[in-house]
């Protein structure tokens, strides 16, 4: 069953740049960033930059599809991202539902009236699953910042095993005082909008978003715009609880695994959507890993300068956008980049440009040494 083909046929995303994929892509193509300056915020007692969704706009958009407002901000984001996709498909007893997140409803712990159960990831997944009427037990993937893209690999493998026929994936995280104070405590937050791979990169800018996709192996349903998932790899380098491997070993091996399964060479990759957090160690690690694979001339970008680092949502969000770029044969600029800030050469995209894209690579890395790489092929 391993050679069963799997495709992403429907995608959507919710972010500060828009409440559907088309509006997000339009903002990206115009160079508009969702990152804003925040001060006197209840989330953090010092000023900070972040990409946050306006709560009033979120509530308004949610009220269009649902009268019951008894949902958290994150739940509303996830439901809005997933609903247009579910509306186009049938749910069966062989349909998987996968939810990816790093912190989930962590804000539930801030309200003393809430029980701790409301912050459990399984509770979040069950609530979303029940809302849409999924018939199978929801699957939660929470593996730091690779969670979103890892869910694509897991869904593909489960469909290929015959366990499921298709899968709905949703990934999301929100900016919270817990996350902000955590990154701020070890001085990982940039004092300006983040600049991935740039010589002035000095830390992350946090963001919030939700993204959703539908994956199937039923080739009779494949239409224009579908993306084939042809290879994946996930390797933990076990280097440090928060620091990536200096040699990029885990990411290097993840990409090699993905290339082997995809049965293509390094030269076939037309474009890389990198993790690109704008921390010195992450950007350097990715540059080292890419150079070990002779990717130094392959066009690379990071979407963190537009969305901020959306944690467990980032991998799926950036996959959705990268797939849209591939379907339009367009390379989007890596916002915030001007001059190389890594010791290894990279071909960072400085301006939007046209390029025929057949194969593209999405990478992600996270705390604890986790790394994931997935390779996609445009089929029409």
Describe this structure in words.
The chain is of the alpha/beta class and 380 residues long. It has helices at 21-29, 55-65, 73-86, 121-132, 147-160, 177-185, 249-262, 280-292, 304-307, 314-327; strands spanning 6-14, 36-38, 48-51, 95-100, 139-141, 166-173, 206-207, 209-216, 227-234, 271-273, 299-301, 330-331, 347-348, 353-354, 359-366, 370-378. The strands form 3 sheets. The protein has an 11-stranded mixed beta sheet with strand order 5-4-6-8-1-9-16-15-10-11-13, sandwiched between helices. A 3-stranded mixed beta sheet has the order 2-3-7. Helix 2 (55-65) crosses helix 3. The longest helix is centred in the first third of the chain and has 14 residues, at 73-86. The chain is globular and about 50 Å long. The two termini are 24 Å apart.
């Amino acid at each position: 069953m391993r050679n069963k083909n799997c495709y992403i046929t429907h995608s959507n995303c919710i972010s500060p740049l828009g409440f559907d994929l088309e509006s997000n892509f339009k903002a990206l193509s115009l160079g508009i960033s969702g990152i804003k300056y925040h001060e006197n915020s209840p989330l953090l007692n010092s000023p900070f930059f972040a990409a946050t969704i306006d709560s009033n706009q979120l509530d308004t958009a949610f009220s269009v599809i649902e009268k019951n407002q008894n949902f958290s901000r994150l739940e509303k984001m996830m439901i809005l991202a997933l609903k247009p996709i579910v509306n186009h498909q049938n749910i069966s007893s062989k349909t998987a539902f996968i939810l990816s997140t790093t912190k989930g409803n962590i804000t539930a712990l801030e309200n003393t009236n809430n029980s701790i159960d409301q912050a459990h990831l399984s509770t979040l997944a069950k609530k979303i699953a029940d809302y849409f009427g999924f018939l199978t037990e929801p699957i939660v993937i929470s593996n730091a910042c690779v969670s979103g893209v890892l869910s694509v690999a897991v869904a593909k493998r489960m469909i290929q095993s015959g366990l499921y026929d298709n899968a709905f994936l949703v990934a999301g995280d929100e900016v919270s005082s817990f996350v902000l104070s955590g990154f701020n405590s070890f001085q990982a937050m940039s004092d300006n909008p983040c600049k991935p791979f740039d010589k002035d990169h000095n830390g992350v800018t946090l963001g919030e978003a939700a993204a959703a996709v539908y994956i199937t192996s039923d080739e009779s349903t494949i239409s224009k715009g579908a993306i084939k998932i042809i290879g994946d790899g996930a390797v933990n380098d076990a280097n440090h609880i928060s620091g990536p491997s200096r040699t990029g070993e885990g990411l290097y091996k993840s990409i090699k695994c993905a290339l082997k399964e995809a049965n293509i060479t390094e030269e076939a990759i037309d474009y890389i959507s990198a993790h690109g957090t704008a921390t010195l160690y992450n950007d350097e690690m990715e540059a080292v890993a890419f150079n070990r694979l002779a990717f130094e001339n392959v066009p690379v970008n990071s979407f963190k300068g537009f969305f901020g680092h959306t944690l467990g949502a980032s991998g799926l969000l950036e996959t959705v956008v990268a797939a849209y770029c591939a379907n339009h044969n367009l390379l989007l600029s890596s916002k915030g980049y001007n001059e190389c800030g890594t010791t290894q050469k990279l071909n960072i995209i400085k301006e939007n440009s046209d390029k025929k894209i057949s194969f593209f690579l999405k990478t992600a890395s996270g705390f604890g040494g986790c790394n994931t790489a997935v390779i996609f092929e445009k089929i029409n």
